[in-house]
Write a structure and sequence with these properties.
With 359 residues, the chain is α/β, with parallel strands linked by helices. It has an 8-stranded mixed β-sheet, sandwiched between helices. Helix 1 crosses helix 3, helix 5 crosses helix 13 and helix 8 crosses helix 9. The longest helix is centred in the first third of the chain and has 16 residues. The radius of gyration is 25 Å and the shape is elongated.
Length: 359
């Protein structure tokens, strides 16, 4: 995957694939625009028009310039174009936990569309922290990226989007947002309701919801859906408690198993806000000799590949991650075109039942 990962400490970009030493020799001569013009037999202005795509160029002339660029190994200086008011050929991807398999699959969908549009993807991991998020948004605006796809932790009343929009960048939000912004989301509340109803229909009455930092809006909607399901069977002695992980590290998630077992009465089922949480808890419970689902049933959310391959395959709410990424990137590219109208796209959930609830 040709991702670029942003170094939050502010010193630049790191490509995920190594460069070859043959192309990094400090003493190598570098072809200039004038060299390209001479080799192609055209003026400097014609080469400039070709590089910046500002005027039509005859096919034969274009072909000569392309051959000259290839033969000279010429690399355009995109930073000059940016300083003149242009945009970098990059889009930002700002999420709370970019190494998470869910966000990796979304990134794959974004990148496949972006590549066809001649763009590279800069991935920024906020670790669920608003200060990191605001820093990334500010720096991406200063980089003059073409656009940003972001899973915001800030509320709609907050201001981090202003800098992006002032820079001319397109913005697509992962999740529900206002009508003045393109957004693509998932009906998280209905997904939460489906997950909780599944547990209720299996006869569970002591259920715990497990949340955590990052994607707070989505987590809250999933919890609200579970609450709605519980309210629909009020009077039956059902309890729905909530515990949140203290961080996004594996250790933070794994400790939830200990906290679950300390509860009185002990829950018979847990609904986790993500599959990553669910798998960490599943492994923690199994190591302590707790049988899943016989002692405690578990439902996750997202249906990442590892959910199906787990020691006890995980019941989960399915989210079309790759398709979500593709559609987000398509919205972003559309927004860069004149006459674009903002769209708000919502995917509907489905429940995938596996052995973690019915084994």
């Amino acid at each position: 995957m040709a991702l670029l990962f942003f170094d939050r400490k502010g010193l630049g970009l790191m490509r995920s694939t190594p460069t070859t030493a043959a192309h990094s020799s400090a003493g190598a001569s570098r072809a200039t625009v004038r060299d390209v013009a001479d080799a192609a037999g055209v003026s400097l202005g014609t080469v400039s028009n070709f590089l910046n795509d500002v005027k039509p160029i005859a096919p034969a002339t274009r072909s000569r310039i392309e051959k000259a660029i290839e033969s000279l190994d010429f690399v355009p200086n995109r930073s000059l174009r940016t300083m003149r008011g242009g945009r970098t050929q990059a889009i930002g991807y700002v999420v709370s936990d970019s190494p998470d398999p869910f966000f990796v699959e979304v990134a794959r969908g974004i990148e496949d569309v972006a590549r066809h549009g001649g763009l590279v993807l800069v991935s920024c991991n906020t670790e669920g922290r608003r200060d990191h998020e605001s820093q990334y948004v500010t720096v991406l605006a200063e980089m003059r990226v073409a656009g940003v796809i972001v899973l915001p932790s800030f509320e709609q009343s907050d201001l981090p989007f202003r800098g992006l929009r002032a820079s001319g960048a397109a913005v697509v939000v992962l999740g529900e947002w206002d009508q003045e912004t393109c957004s693509i989301g998932f009906n998280d509340q209905e997904g939460g309701r489906l997950a909780a109803m599944h547990l209720l229909e299996l006869g569970h009455r002591h259920i715990v919801f497990l949340g955590g930092p990052g994607g707070e809006s989505q987590v809250e909607h999933r919890f609200a859906g579970a609450q709605a399901a519980v309210r629909s069977v009020e009077g039956s002695g059902v309890s729905l408690r909530r515990i949140d992980a203290t961080g996004s590290a594996i250790s933070d998630r794994s400790e939830l198993a200990d906290r679950l077992l300390e509860l009185e009465p002990r829950p018979t089922a847990v609904f986790c806000a993500s599959d990553s949480l669910a798998l960490a808890v599943l492994n923690g419970l199994l190591r302590k000799g707790i049988r899943v689902p016989h002692d405690i049933a578990i439902v996750g959310f997202n249906d990442i590949m590892a959910a199906q391959l787990a020691v006890v395959p995980l019941t989960t709410v399915s989210v079309p991650q790759y398709e979500l990424g593709q559609r987000a990137a398509q919205l972003l590219l559309d927004e860069l075109k004149p006459g674009h109208r903002h769209e708000q796209v919502i995917f509907e959930p489905s429940l995938v039942v596996r052995e973690s609830t019915t084994g």
